């Protein structure tokens, strides 16, 4: 993308209506604009990041064997009356009437809808187990929407739902999502620690929140530094390996991590002092096992292997896709702006001419831009005739992982400067080597 033809509005001043750094940076760098309280339009820069995050979530769900579908945002009140949640849900649910006075709602989650969709098709034990998911907008009329996309009213969520014949199967489905989550967040370049969550309506040990450390997080967290060294993508674990998944779950159960809601002082005291990590965190995912709560209430039964009818065991698994954009910025920024992890960066390379009025620079940069884009390297080329310093500051703010800087002096020697946004490290390279490095 050439910046001269893009729609990338940036704010010169730091916005005063934002309290936390990620929200300020998202507004300044033009990722989002608020259109109503807690509701945001995703501008091109933000939308590119959102799609990258969504892509990683999708890929890892697919690998874990979950099956994608798409359910609507609007739901009928009838559906929620079947589970008994319509009246119980309270003011967070946005209730709407259509022209026929039928009661509708903007879905805050989809347990009811998926249960009915799957119930109406699944007949026997052979149709199970299945995990179905979608990535869809949700609406929760939060009392205090705040911190931008972090606690919005309309937000994008990945929600998966598992159906199993028995409790042992439900645990496998839960462990599978647990591993998928660990890998998903690691691939995004952030560390999300699984923390035992206050158990849901069913109780037991099967509810975890995934928390990214950030001083502005909403909950207080305590965890063992062991988590900092764990590598889930290289772990060699495979999704179908029941024994390995059980071992993973046991390891997590033995390695302390809790929010203030589930914190246990006696267990915490057993973690060696030098390994105790305490701080605040942002919940980017939450997984639940709730047994037969919805299947029972909604009359979902299948015939079991011995002919007897069985009520399927269910779980649900959420990831805050739009919240992650804010959470990643909270975890990865500096004074100059955002520092995107490569996997979610809107573009990989920011190409800058220091002198937009220098014909040789413009020609060289245009050539590099063509070569980079045809090699499939996502490149944003600031081809405007602006001050070089201002362009570099804009690139720092936007946080693309690499900056390739073309100036008349270097060019005379056949070189350009390659800057690593994260470390600030700069290297003077020949144009060919710079290209080779970025296309490798
Ligand atoms: N039905 C379950 C699992 S699918 C569920 O709704 N879980 S949840 O309430 O924990 O939401 C899942 C994730 O959505 C949360 O972990 C959080 O990352 C994100 N989320 C929840 N509320 C908001 C909000 N108001 N703004 C942005 N993201 C949110």
Automatic annotation (TrEMBL):
SUPFAM superfamilies: Class II aaRS ABD-related (SSF52954), Class II aaRS and biotin synthetases (SSF55681). Pfam families: HGTP_anticodon, tRNA-synt_2b. Keywords: Aminoacyl-tRNA synthetase, ATP-binding, Cytoplasm, Ligase, Nucleotide-binding, Protein biosynthesis. Its main location: cytoplasm. GO terms for molecular function: ATP binding; proline-tRNA ligase activity. GO terms for cellular component: cytosol. It is found in: Cytoplasm. Residues 38-341 form the Aminoacyl-transfer RNA synthetases class-II family profile domain. It catalyses: tRNA(Pro) + L-proline + ATP = L-prolyl-tRNA(Pro) + AMP + diphosphate. Its EC number is 6.1.1.15. Coiled coil: none annotated. One of its GO terms (biological process) is prolyl-tRNA aminoacylation. Belongs to the class-II aminoacyl-tRNA synthetase family. ProS type 2 subfamily. NCBIfam families: PRK12325.1, proS_fam_II. Homodimer. Catalyzes the attachment of proline to tRNA(Pro) in a two-step reaction: proline is first activated by ATP to form Pro-AMP and then transferred to the acceptor end of tRNA(Pro). This is Proline--tRNA ligase.
